[in-house]
Design goal:
The chain has about 350 residues and is of the alpha/beta class. The chain is built from twelve helices and eight strands. About 50% of the residues lie in helices and about 10% in strands. A hairpin with a 5-residue loop joins strand 4 and strand 5. The chain binds guanosine-5'-diphosphate (GDP).
Length: about 350
């Protein structure tokens, strides 16, 4: 199923495959269809549905994932078409799954729970229509009433989660205020998922942050105190990875976490320059940054993984000819000297100010 973004169909499907892998699934095949408009009933056309249904039977497939968000009706019809035991889900549900597997702190857990409930709310009808079918329509009226009851329960849970989140965020605000009272510059690492942010943070601090070749290894901002070669200290913060078509429920749930970016003294946009979709990944990140309104914060592009790039020397030259770009390999440590210099330079003005405040 084709996306409508600057990512091509095959790239987007490849990324979906990586997401599935991250969620612990094994991909046995992919397919797509070009349509003027998605079918309102089954998203893809009837021919494609029966083609997939045949493959699902032959390969004993357990899950079929669509790359775009499916409506509750499409989900239901597709599950019917593929047979009872096959789970049908979409990119949003898959990403929500990964986030819920990986949420490490209380706040992240609450945020993901909230996003999952909000995703489920309009899809609640499903379970009950199944039951109605089983009972031969006998429980029709009851089913509808039950849906209303279930929706009410979900809404109550959503309200409770929001309240708990407020409390947790209140604590974090106090922590931020305390941090702000000791004026030490905060450097935020932002970037597409898997760009190498955790690896860079590890290299900077020996922090032992989880770095995995999987999407979304980092869900919670992790902050580390780092002494720069010039002897000045600053805090480096790793943020949640970005991805194209990040579910809106998640953007909303993680907004407060992302908003912390606007408190930073310096933004480092970490990019995987060896990735074939590097330009599109950059766009996806920039569009989230634009939404967060952080244009006034000093900014450096970190071209990471240049050890893996096709022509590292050309990249180095290009980076040198542009301001605000540093080529590094967080893995091998190459370019770290230039990295430190660039960060120190960017922070210099601010450091002078800080020293004036605390002599
Ligand atoms: P994050 O999602 O942005 O935090 O990315 P990670 O730090 O978890 O890195 C994702 C993968 O890329 C890991 O397998 C890293 O070992 C690898 N990686 C990170 N930096 C580099 C680099 O400079 N060169 C190469 N070749 N691989 C890297």
């Amino acid at each position: 199923a084709g996306p409508r973004s600057s990512f091509g169909i095959s790239e987007s499907l490849e990324e979906l495959g990586q997401l599935a892998d991250t969620a612990g699934l094994t991909v046995v095949g992919t397919t797509y269809q070009k349509l003027e408009n998605p079918s309102p009933k089954t998203y893809v056309g009837a021919g494609k549905v029966s083609q997939v249904a045949t493959a699902v039977k032959a390969l004993k497939v357990e899950t079929v994932i669509f790359d775009d968000e499916l409506s509750p009706g499409q989900l239901r019809n597709l599950e019917k078409a593929f047979g009872g035991d096959v789970r049908v889900c979409d990119r949003t549900a898959l990403i929500l799954d990964i986030f819920s597997q990986r949420a490490a702190t209380r706040e992240a857990t609450l945020q993901v729970d909230l996003a999952q409930l909000e995703y489920q709310l309009p899809r609640l009808t499903r379970m009950w229509t199944h039951l109605e079918r089983q009972a031969g329509g006998l429980v029709k009226g009851m089913g509808e009433k039950q849906i209303e009851v279930d929706k009410r329960i979900l809404r109550t849970q959503i309200a409770q989660l929001k309240k708990q989140l407020e409390t947790v965020r209140g604590h974090r605000q106090q922590y931020r205020d305390r941090r702000a009272s000791v004026p030490i510059p905060v450097v935020s690492l932002v970037g597409y998922t898997n760009a190498g942010k955790s690896t860079l943070l590890n290299r900077l601090s020996g922090a032992g942050v989880l770095a995995e070749d999987r999407l979304f290894a980092t869900l919670d901002p992790t902050t580390r105190r780092v002494e720069l070669p010039n002897g000045k200290e600053c805090l480096f913060t790793d943020t949640v990875g970005f991805i194209q078509k990040l579910p809106t429920q998640l953007v909303a749930a993680f907004r407060a976490t992302l908003e912390e970016i606007s408190d930073s003294s310096l933004l480092l946009h970490v990019m995987d320059v060896s990735h074939p979709m590097a330009a599109q990944q950059r766009e996806a990140v920039d569009s989230v940054l634009n939404d967060l309104d952080v244009g006034h914060i000093p900014y450096l592009c970190i071209w990471n993984k240049f050890d893996k790039a096709e022509d590292p020397e050309a990249l180095k030259l290009e980076a040198a000819s542009r301001g605000d770009v540093v080529c590094i390999s967080a893995l091998t440590g190459e370019g770290m000297k230039e990295f430190h210099e660039a960060v120190e330079n960017k922070l210099k003005d601010m450091m002078v100010h800080v020293e004036a405040v605390i002599p």
